[in-house]
Each structure stands twice: as C-alpha cells, then as structure tokens.
Inverse folding.
C-alpha cells in the first residue's frame, strides 16, 4: 500500500502544476494572446504560431530547451539544438535565402531612388542605438537591440549572436518578430500623422519594364559591391542574393522552388519554435526585457517616421511625383510593409495602386538592415 501511495505521489508531483510559477502563467497567457493574433486576426501566422507554441512549451516544460550541462543524462532538450542553429547564424542566413527566392527585385531595379528611401529608414536604428546606450545597455547590447527597428527578425538574431548577446537573443527576437507582425497596426497612424490627404492621394507612374539580364546581374553586382565594402554582411546579403539568383537566372527552378517553399518553411518552424522557447519566465520577465521591448518599439517607430519624412522630401524635390507613403516600406518586413503602404494609399483614393512602388523601398530595407548589422559588426571588430 505504501508503494502505491508513494508511486501516485511521485506521479502527481511530476505534473507541471507543482512546478509552475506566477511568471510561467503570465508567459502562457502571452502565448495565448499571440496565438489569438495569429489565428483569429491573421497577423503573420507563419511566424507567430511557432513562436507562441515554443513560448507555451518552455513555460510548461522548461527542460525542453535545457543545455546538456543542465540535464542528468548529458543530452539537451529538443529545442536547445534548434536554438544552437540560431546562435550559429545558420537559420537566419537560410531565411534570407528563402526571402531572396520569393522576392521580385524588379521594383527596386526600375526605381533606384528606392535605395535611398530604404537607407533613410535605417536612421531609426542608429537613433535607437544611442537611446539604448542612454538606458544603460553596453555598446554591443545597444546595437543588437537597435536593429529591431528594421523589423527584421533574422537580422536581429544574427547580430545578437555575432555580438555575443545570446542572453538577450530571446527578448530581441520576440520583440522583432512581434513588431513585424504588428506592422499593420503600428505603421498607419505614423504614416497619417506625417502626411496630408493630398500627399496620400498622389498616384505614381507605372514602373518601367526590367529586362531579364538586369534581374540576373542585380544580385551578383549587389553581392560583390556590398560584401567588398562590408565582408561581414556576406552570410545575410550573400544568401539573400543567392536565393534571388536562383529565382531569376531561369536554370535553377528546382532550387528556387525548394528555397522559397520547403526549405523556407522548415527553417521558419525551427527558428520560430526555438525563439519562442527562449522566453521562459525567468529569462523574459525582468526590467531588462521590458527595456528591450520598449526600445525596439521606439526603434521601429523612428525607422517608419524617417522613411515617411524622407518620402515627403523626395515628393517635394520631384514636384509631387513620389507618394511619401512608400517611404514607410523602407523597413525590412517584406512584403507586409509594402501592403500597408498600399492599404493606406487606397484609403485616401481607392484607385491608387502603390504596392509595386512600395516594394522597391521594402526590398531596399532588407538590404539596408543587413548593411546596418554589418556596420555594427565592423565597428566592434566582429
């Protein structure tokens, strides 16, 4: 009888109910909110669903991301090995390959001034970097936090790993992906605040056709130029352009299909669940994390604002030929930010079609955020 009682007592105490803290319950609630936003509201479900589920798992069963040193048998938890691929910058680089294979760079090639709008949005990153230092973060931690302003989860993870900020990688990644998902909520008020209705109604001329030769040469030239200037960007820019070359060269259809579909979705699952699993209550619920989330939001707002303001400047310089709304797409959330530019423009004039024009700054923003990460790595000698 004692044996039965002891066995039942052991089984009961092995349940998660006896190990959960208040913090765990809070993080589980946050996971439910993320799942609701992803499933019911459709906010970037491919990202939020695995992140939210990883968050749910780690706060019920923390050992799922335990390192080998933390376990009795010397074998780490399942998501620990997924997370190592984040720290080693493997998954972020593969994500960039998939993005390149999925993205048409023609709007950027047809309208090179888009490069400038994409670059303007990166000023928000540098502004947030200085602000993070004022908040007491080290230079390298401030750089890893500031890159959130580009609304680029893979680059945020990549830079945090390269700068040795793995302790902050979870909050940084969750903040970056959350703001990527919330682009349709965060950006429109900023866009409307800094533009007039007349500016939002501006119609832009159709983009010129881009030849196949231009589309093939573009990723090769960008890789050579950017990587010669900032070699540290090669893992991100190189993979982005390789994926795009698969798409455009016409002789690697199978590679393009694999990079943009099967490989991309596998990597998203691994990266999303491991990022979510880095948000245990002990690691996430602290003042430092709240500062990171707040600074990430400031960085994203600054980036959007700078893009719109530079769009206004170009609107003035070109005599009203450029709709300043497309400047907001200079952040790296592809193609969500471009869709938001289209949506806000269509609200002012339902016949206005800005999507393809906004894709130029949007693609430039992907490159610009990777370059910003490369600049930080160069500054710190990484």
């Amino acid at each position: 009888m004692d044996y039965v009682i002891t066995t039942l007592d052991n089984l009961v105490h092995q349940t998660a109910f006896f190990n959960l803290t208040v913090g765990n319950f809070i993080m589980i609630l946050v996971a439910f909110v993320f799942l609701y936003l992803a499933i019911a509201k459709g906010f970037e479900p491919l990202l939020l669903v695995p992140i939210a589920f990883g968050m749910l798992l780690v706060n019920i069963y923390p050992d799922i991301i335990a390192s080998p040193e933390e376990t009795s048998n010397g074998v780490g938890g399942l998501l620990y090995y997924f997370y190592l691929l984040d720290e080693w910058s493997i998954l972020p680089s593969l994500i960039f390959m998939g993005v390149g294979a999925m993205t048409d760079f023609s709007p950027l090639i047809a309208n090179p001034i888009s490069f400038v709008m994409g670059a303007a949005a990166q000023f928000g990153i540098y502004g947030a970097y200085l602000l993070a230092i004022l908040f007491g973060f080290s230079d390298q931690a401030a750089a890893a936090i500031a890159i959130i302003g580009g609304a680029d989860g893979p680059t945020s993870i990549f830079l945090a790993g390269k700068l040795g900020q793995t302790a902050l990688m979870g909050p940084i990644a969750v903040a970056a992906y959350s703001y990527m998902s919330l682009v349709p909520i965060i950006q429109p008020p900023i866009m409307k605040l800094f533009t007039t209705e007349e500016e939002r109604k501006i119609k832009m001329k159709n983009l010129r056709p881009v030849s196949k030769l231009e589309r093939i040469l573009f990723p090769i030239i960008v890789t050579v130029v950017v990587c010669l200037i900032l070699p540290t960007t090669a893992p991100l820019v190189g993979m982005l352009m390789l994926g795009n070359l698969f798409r455009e060269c016409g002789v690697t259809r199978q590679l393009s299909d694999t990079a943009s579909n099967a490989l991309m979705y596998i990597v998203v699952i691994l990266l999303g669940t491991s990022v979510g699993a880095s948000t245990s209550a002990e690691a996430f619920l602290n003042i430092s994390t709240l500062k990171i989330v707040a600074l990430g939001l400031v960085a994203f707002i600054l980036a959007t604002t700078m893009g719109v303001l530079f769009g206004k400047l170009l609107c003035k310089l070109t005599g009203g030929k450029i709709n300043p709304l497309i400047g907001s797409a200079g952040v790296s959330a592809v193609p969500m930010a471009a869709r938001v530019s289209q949506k806000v423009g269509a609200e002012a004039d339902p016949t206005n079609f800005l999507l393809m024009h906004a894709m130029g700054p949007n693609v430039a923003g992907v490159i610009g955020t990777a370059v910003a990460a490369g600049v930080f790595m160069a500054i710190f000698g990484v």
